[in-house]
Amino acid sequence: MRTELEELDNAVCAALGGADDARRGLKAALAACTAADVAVPAQITGCLQAADEHLGYGERMEARTLLTVAHRLLSRTSPRPVVLPGPREVDRVKGSARG
Questions:
Q1: Would residue 90 count as lying in a domain?
Q2: What local confidence, expressed as pLDDT, does residue 81 receive?
Q3: pLDDT tens digit string along 34-83?
Q4: Residue 90: pLDDT band with limits 50, 70, 90
C-alpha cells in the first residue's frame, strides 16, 4: 500500500517526466496529503508551489530544478526498508568466496 507521500513523489516524478497534466497531478497529490492529515514538510510544499508557478508561466527549466529538489527531499522523508543479510548468510557468502 502506498502512502500519500509516495503518491506525492510519484506526481513529482511524473511532472519531471514532462506529463502534460503535471500541475493538476501535483495539486491532487498535495490535496490527498491534506485530506489524509499527512504533514508535508514546508520545504517540499514551498518547492512544489514555486514549481507550479513556474509551470504556469511556461518556465520548465526552473520548475524542473524545484521539482528535483522536492523529489530528493521526499526521498529522505520516507525511507524504504533495507533488508540486511543475517549472520548465517554472511558466513555462507564468505565461505563461498574462499573456496
A1: no
A2: 47
A3: 999 998 999 999 999 999 999 989 998 999 999 999 999 998 875 554 44
A4: very low
Asked whether residue 40 is assigned to any structural domain, the reply reads: yes
Q: Which residues form the domain of 12?
A: 4-77
What pLDDT digit, counting tens, does each position of 35-45 carry?
999 989 999 99
Give the side-chain half-sphere CA count within 13 A for 35.
9
CB 66 within 8 A of CB 47: yes
Q: Work out how many domains the chain is built from and give that number.
A: 1
Instruction: Determine the pLDDT at residue 79.
Output: 52
**Among the residues of the chain, which ranges form H helices?**
4-16, 22-35, 42-56, 60-77, 87-98
Q: How far is CA 57 from CA 35, 43, 61, in A?
A: 28, 21, 11
Amino acid identity, position 96? S
Q: Residue 67: inside a domain, yes or no?
A: yes
